[in-house]
Write a structure and sequence with these properties.
single chain, Molybdenum Cofactor Biosythetic Enzyme, Chain A, 6-stranded mixed sheet, 17 helices, 27% helix
């Protein structure tokens, strides 16, 4: 293929390399130039254009991309994959159904080594996908490639989707004396949600004492196609209660421990031809962990071997899970006087205020933003951070003279999570806890924040302290201990931190506060009018 500028008069039949947008001429790149195109280009005064001219032994990009994609998926039905029509030298490959993608990595590497002009990119090996998900894309880089590259590409069947086939699973929970019922409920619900993602349902759920004999009997009576075990305490050794009970029931252990964190303490085995998975404690959290990697393969009927698990170490360091009893960072010991900072979220767009800025409305003679920030500054806190929109000069002016730190949230329009992420990045390195507060809550005072700080106690697992009204209605602000910092720093969407609270209820303490301050937010003109009337009546 030849590529470069040519006189317009000689460009007919060539492929336009760059889009033209001159006066009335609108020609997209990749277009095969016709006689009419040449006339139009000549009429606007262009003397040359950049084109690609195919050689006799070249194959055009779309034709080449389609042929190459078919070499990777020669039997689309058997592979449970479908191939898109080619466009701009690209062909996408999609999953027909939900499952796990299996990739012949060596074949993909050979494919990409043929020529830099020919590429395929895939999802990671054993990635879980939904129906219709894009799992690979073939791209021919230039406008054409030599026939020898395409016709010489071996048929590899490098891509295959293993659909979910597991229909039922049994869950066995163990309990120790004094174990809260809500922890058992949380465990059951978390595992049920996990397997529902594989189109699998819970066949039976039983709770037995954390004893070898009781657990062994439960394994014998399990009816599901797979058996899942979640013990009250972590499995610490291959001779611990879980593995021993499986052996005693007539089953076998194939693996204890995995190089995936969270998920290290998983054990894997079999009973009566059915897989048995001893779930690690992190399976109580919805966050991704090593058990997910094992379960999704089992759900597709893929054997999980000792070697398979041993090979999971690369990429096996996953996101920290806040409910881990001892996080990776080591001790959570907090001094008697913890260092607590506040994130005052003030980046909202006042969309419900019909043209007004809720934070610049006057409350007791000053903008609400200033009034709220000043109240925070009087609390027993190390520092007050105000998370703001970039370059909002009016809100900036409202904070002049206050001892607060401004943090910019460039992605504030994404929602509250973006402001929390920005704020978490601005915390001091030695901060023990953070209070998340909203700037449009006028009745929250320094006393509310001090009450949250007073209840914070890591040793007693009081690591989320939530303000509630006098009648017990949950609200804001909320204090989070360091255990939750990584999760907060990676929030998405507009739900703020409510899911963090929901998923870590064992660390939650509700802190009663005066009146209704914890739930009063002024984000509409009607709310402002009502608040002002209530204030006037109380004076």
């Amino acid at each position: 293929m030849k590529f470069g500028p040519v006189p317009v008069a000689k460009a007919e039949g060539a492929i336009l390399a760059h889009s033209l947008n001159v006066e009335e001429v609108r020609l997209r790149k990749g277009r095969k130039l016709s006689a009419a195109d040449i006339a139009s280009v000549t009429d606007v005064g262009l003397s040359e254009v950049t084109v690609a001219v195919l050689a006799p032994d070249d194959i055009a990009e779309d034709q080449a991309a389609e042929a190459l994609a078919r070499s990777l998926v020669p039997d689309r039905d058997a592979a449970s994959l479908k191939i898109s029509s080619p466009f701009t030298g690209r062909v996408n490959i999609y999953a027909i159904t939900a499952g796990v993608i299996q990739i012949d990595a060596a074949a993909i590497e050979r494919f990409n080594a043929v020529s830099p002009a020919i590429t395929v990119a895939t999802l990671p090996q054993m990635a879980r996908v939904s129906a219709g998900a894009l799992i690979a894309t073939v791209k021919v880089i230039p406008y054409a490639v030599s026939k020898q590259f395409v016709e010489g590409m071996p048929i590899s069947a490098a891509l295959h989707l293993a659909p979910f086939t597991l229909r039922t699973a049994s869950l066995i929970l163990t309990r120790t004396p004094g174990m809260a019922d809500k922890l058992l409920t949380k465990s059951r619900d978390a595992v049920a949600r996990r397997i529902q993602a594989f189109n699998c349902t819970m066949d039976d759920v039983v709770t037995v004492p954390h004893e070898i004999s009781a657990l062994s009997e439960a394994i014998l009576n399990a009816t599901g196609e797979a058996i899942l075990i979640l013990t009250a305490s972590a499995t610490s050794d291959i001779q611990d209660v879980g593995p021993t009970a499986l052996n005693q029931s007539g089953g076998e252990i194939t693996r204890f421990g995995m190089p995936v964190d969270p998920g290290n303490l998983l054990f894997l085995g079999a009973y009566d031809g059915r897989p048995v998975v001893g779930l690690p404690g992190c399976a109580r959290s919805p966050a991704l962990n090593g058990a997910d990697w094992v379960l999704q393969r089992i759900a597709c009927g893929i054997d999980v071997t000792n070697k398979d698990i041993a090979n999971m170490g690369v990429g096996g360091l996953l996101k920290e899970i806040p409910t881990r009893p001892q996080p990776r960072g080591g001790s959570l010991d907090v001094p008697a006087q913890p260092k607590v900072e506040v994130l005052l979220l003030a980046a909202g767009g006042s969309r419900r205020m019909r043209g007004k800025d809720k934070l610049l409305e006057i409350a007791d003679g000053e903008p609400l933003l200033r009034r709220t920030a000043r109240a925070m500054a009087h609390a027993r806190l190390e520092r007050v951070h105000v998370v703001m929109q970039p370059e909002n000069t009016e809100r900036d002016a409202a904070l002049l003279g206050l001892d607060v730190n401004r943090i910019s949230s460039p992605a504030w329009q994404e929602g509250m999570a973006a402001s929390i992420r920005a704020g978490m990045a601005g915390l001091s390195q030695d901060c023990d806890a953070v209070i998340i507060a909203l700037a449009d809550m006028p009745d929250v005072t320094y006393a509310h924040l001090n009450s949250l700080v007073a209840e914070f106690n890591v040793a007693e697992a009081r690591e989320i302290c939530r303000a509630v009204t006098a009648d017990g209605t949950p609200g804001l602000p909320v204090l989070f201990g360091r255990r939750f910092f990584e999760t907060l720093a990676n929030l998405q969407g507009d739900r703020g931190a409510r899911d963090v609270v929901k998923d870590a209820s064992e660390f939650l303490v509700d802190v009663p506060t005066l009146g209704q301050a914890a739930v009063i937010g002024l984000d509409t003109p009607e709310a402002w009018n009502q608040w002002r009337m209530d204030r006037n009546r109380s004076v």
